[in-house]
Structure formats: C-alpha cells, structure tokens
Amino acid sequence: MVLSAMGPVATLATADHDSIVGMNSSMIIDGDEYEMVEVPFWGDIISCNDEGDYYTCDVDLNGDGSYDGNWHFNDCEMDAAGEWECVYSEQTPLLDEGNYSIEFEVWGLDLDTNYTYHVQLNSHSPVEAGVFHMHDNGVVNSTQTGEISIANMYLVVTNETCDANGHIQMSYESNGTYIGSRHFGFHGPCDYDSHLSLDVDGVEYEEEPQYFYDSEHILDCDIYGNQWYCLMDHNNDGSADGMNSFEECEEDTGGNWTCIMHYMDPYLGEGSHTMVINATGLDAGYSYELDVYYYKSQRMLDGETYYPGSGFFNGSSGSMTLDVVTDNYTCGVTIHVYLRSGNWDASGNWGYNDTVESTDWRFEGPCDTPPSPFTMELDGVEHEYIQHYADYDECDDQGDHFQCWNDDWDNDGDGSPDWTHWEGNCWELSDGTWECETWRESPPIFEGNHTFNLSIADLEAGNSYRLRAELNMNTWNGHDHFHESNHYYINNSTGEDATFSWSLETDETTCGVHLYMDLDKGYWNDNGDWHHNGSVYYESFDWQGPCDEPESPFSLTYDGIDYEHLYYYSDYDECEEDGHDFRCWNDDWDGDGDGEPDWYDHHDECEEDPAGVWACLLPWNIWPVEIEEGNHSMVLSVDDLEVGQEYEVAMWIDHCESGQGCDGAGEADWMFNATSDSEDFTFYVETSNFTCDMRVHTALSMVENGQPHQMMDDHFPFMGPCEEPPSPFTVALDGVDHEVIWNYVHYDHCNDEAHTLVQH
Length: 760
Fold this sequence. Notes:
With 760 residues, the chain is mostly beta strands. 1% of the residues lie in helices and 58% in strands.
C-alpha cells in the first residue's frame, strides 16, 4: 500500500500542585484563610469510601431512599449525626468593595533557610477605577518549624473591579532553585458605567441572552461566588433530581425562576456595515484618543487584523466611525477599543496619560464554507458524500437550527410534543411535511488498484502554492493502519488548473481510506525556505471499504478431527445491497402501513435461495462443537506466515463444569522465527462428563524490536456432556430425604426445532 505521486467546574485558584509552595501555602484575607466557595451535592449520600485522593459514594438521586449509582467526589465529610456531605462543585470567591489586608503563609520548608520570594496583588477592570497593582520582592528566613509569613500587603477592590488575584513564587536564595508558586483568584462586583458604546448600522450593540428553555423544572436557585446553581425537578415529582449551573437567574413574585444559560455574540450578516464607536461621560478638561483595531476570521482562510487608526477628540464626548465589510464566509468580527486620556504638546504631538477604559465587541458571522477549488476523482468518478435525510410532521425555524417533531410524539395529550429533535438544515415539502439533512455517508471503495485524480481551480497567476496531501488507510483489525504525508509545490502559477494523481491498492479487508488536502500560498526566501503567507482551502475525502474480516490464520484439529466453525444465520423476506453491506427486512415490519419497513437489519454476507428467502450469516454467533469426556490431543496450525519473521502465538483455555464454576485449564506462549509459511503446535486438554463449556483461545502477534503487536485472534468453542455431578449433601426433614418434585406441562403436539446452523 503506497501513495505515489505522479504529478462546569473552572477555578481561578491554581498552583504547581506537586511543588512545595503549591501544596503548602495559603492566603489570609482580613484574618480569614482563602477558600473556594463550595457547592453542596444536591442528592442524598447513602455511604462513602475514602479512596485517598477522592471519595466513592453510593447516592440516592431522587429522594426515595434507594441506591441510584456510585459517584466520585473530591471532598466529603461525615457530620456529627453520621450523615455524609459532599462537595458537588467549587467556585471562585466573590469579594465586595473594600480594602483587604493580605498575608501569605508557606509551610513544609527547610528549617532556618533563606528564600527569595515574589508576591503580587492585582485587581482588573475595563475601567481605570477598578484597577489596582501591588507587588513585593525580598528574602525571608524560615522558622525552626519550616514556616514563613509575608504580611503588610493589601488588595483594593472597588465596585468597578471585575476580578482580582494574588500570586506567590519562591526559590532558594543560595542557588536560585525554584520551589513553586500558587495563584489565588477572586471575582469582584464588576459594576460600572461604561464610557463606550457601539452602534452597528444604527442599532446599539447588545449581547443576546440565551434563556433556559425548561424553566418550569427549576425548583430553587442560589448563587455561589458569581455562578448560579439551580435544583432541578426533571420528572415533576416535587423533589430535586439534578442541578444545573447558569450565568444569571431571577425569581419573580410567584416563586418562578428565569435563568440565562449564557450570552451569545450578535449576528452580523454579509455586507458593508457602518460602526460608530461612541465615548461619553468623560471629564471635559482632557483630550482623548480612541485607539481601534478589529480582527476578522473567515472560513478556511487566515484571519486578518485591520488598523483603521485612532480618533482624537477634546471634551466629554467623541466618536469614531468604521466601515467594516463582511461576506458569507466571515465567521466572526471582534472590535478592540482603548480609550486613553492625554494632551497635545506645543509641537502638535500626542502624549498618552492613562487608559480610561478598554473593551471589545464580538460578532458572529454566517461562516459559510466557500466553494471548494478541489475536484477529487476515484477511478474517474467524482467524490460525493451520500446524504441521508429524516422526515418530520413539523419543524420550527430557530434561526441557526430547526426544532422538529412528529405529531405522535405527544404521549401525554397536552398538544405539545414530549420530545423534539434538533436539526441543522430543513425545508418544508409541498405536502406540508418537513425534510432535514441528517448524517452523511462516505462513498464506497472496492478491492483493487485505484487512481485518484485531484484538480485545483481558481489559482491566481503569479502566486506560488503548497499542497499537503495526507493519506490514512485502516483495515479490519485496526493493526494495519497506513499513513503517508507529502508536500507538492506549484511555483509561479499561470492561473490554470493544477492536477495531481496518485495510485493506491486496497483489498477486501480495507475499512476506510481518508485523503486530506491542505492548500496554502507562500513564497521562497533567499535561503530556499518556504514561507507561508495565507491559507487557501482544506478538505477531506473519505471512502468506506469492504472491511471484511480476513481469513483466520488458525486451524485446529482435535483427536484427528478438523474443527469446523458452526455459525447461525437469520432469514428475511427481503434484502438489498447497500454499498458493501446488505440491509434486510421482513414484510411485517411495516407498522405504520406506508409500504416501507419501519427499520432494517444490516449484514455483511447474505444470499437469496430459490424460494426468494434471504439468509444472512451471523459471524459473531458461533455454535460450539460437541466433545466427549477424555484426554484430547489438539494441534493448532498457523498459516500465512512470512519466513524469517519473528512471531508469538498465545493460547489459553477456559473450562467450565456443571456445579463447579469456570477456571483456566491451561495456557501457552510460543515464540519463534518462521522457517516456513506454516507452523504446528501440539497440546492436550482433558475434559470430564461434567464439562459444559470449553474454549480454546488463540492470538497471533508479530514481534518487532522485542515487542509483540497482535495481528489476529480466534477462538474454538466446545460443548461437553454437562452432566450434573453427584451432590455431596444429603438433607433429611423428620427422617425423610429431601427430593425435588418436578411439575410438568402437557401439550397435544411438539415439534423438535433444530438449531439453524451453517458450517464455515
């Protein structure tokens, strides 16, 4: 096989967890130790086991007192009443406005040793009033108990502060060896009046709240840090059976909750857009600069940053206008703005003082996929995915998706469907029903020698391009994965289409062929190195192969008899070829009477008999071969070996007896260098009249650099007499031996139904 070219639980408290400082440090805030805000588990804890790093707990999720599963928690404890309490989640703490005294403590250090430290305290905000910075560096000596304390620091939080943090980092003074760091995070009130606003085509910019669609199932909500958590009652029995987190929640006077899951960026369609950045409410005695740039991302192409320059104004307000052009391939636009105060000197030069406010506004674009410049053919047939569809009685256009359902999905009769499906692309048919695109299936590729032809259009004359072609091919057992990647160059294009061809051989065990093409443009520097200066297009082309199971290299004889696998097969009224497979059905599978089966079975190997009945092989369903009691001689043969290659053959036996359970009846590993294309291995197995099930398992591995890599496995099941062994027990009741009394059912007629088997 050769590809040959012919052309919910985020936290801001982080640390080097395995370092001394990361494990043995804390921050003291106004005398209280820093702690994350714990969200208690909403269900009932039946019992817990301490596993060291975590707890495993049996839980009751619906309050009925019964076991509903086993959960893992990082933190649990038992209260005085013997009840377990566990932490469901942790959130970063919220600090109110204030001036906080800060102290860092570290323990577990070497005794009486000098350490260098660096500590920082920061408050952040889009506006200047919420910003604070403080830091300290120095040398500190540990105590006789290996502890240090760094105090006399403070953190300022204002109403405008959105987040804050403290950080400590330490090293040995003697040699500078780093011993770790820890970061402590906070949220602030983040309550401020912005000086900046944006109008887009005359409409003020506003993020779009995404409201929770199942508010009637919310029982109660509470805020932890700055994150809302709500108890959920999904089955409407009045008891909590889950917990959801939300960005915002509000309770009305009737006790009903409305929650916002998150905010989405507003949509910006294709076209030329006028964007006006407004700055208001400023100190009239200063001059100001609006420093603006924006970034535009596009499907397939590299993103671009635009610098329209700065806008200057004097006084309490000003504005700046941008003209932003987008198309259907624009995925997003982000406007970055810095409002700075300053003044002009006598020479007319601008002098920057402070950043008054900074912000960014984000938009979501259509993000359509541009037309592909690639045309890929397999043996002259253009690659095209097989699109599958689903039909619905109704669909509701939700903007970026469709919510769809059928009329009979209303089991409770309330006039609304009990469930819906979300689809991406739907349209209404002439009869009022809806059709939606669902999944795409790769076209088939069959056994043989193949030619792939790629044509690349829309190349710009004078530009140079680079094509990265990547092949991945896998087979039935997953062990023969093949990968190859190459670069091809189009230097100084004439503008005409470029073509490339590859050859590839597949066989019946090939499961999939994946070709990935990535085209970019660039140039060669004076040293002959390629420099990328823009993506053009990338696309994948997939084909599904037959994926037949290869013939087993193993064969077995027992007592001189060749073992033959006996397989079940299943009968159907109809089957039709579906790519490499068959889809089959029976006539009575049309429950809705529309003339089409309501479901199908899929099989690899099917055949129609003269009576029109289809029989499909069930390779996973093997009937065991009967074996009598005795000491059996067995010979395992391995074929299709490569002479000179090192192999390992593993064999192990499972043996089950009536009333006595199962155990391993033997195993062997044979390592060898193949001297021919076939090797035989002899072993012996003893069975008794009590043997019910005996299986010989085999595995063949190729050994490379001393490491075995499994290629194939097989198994050979046997069925023994399975007689009941005599019981060692005798039970008597009032002197009468216990004896089972059998009951019987009587019929007028019985048919002996033999198993439906096929030899293979």
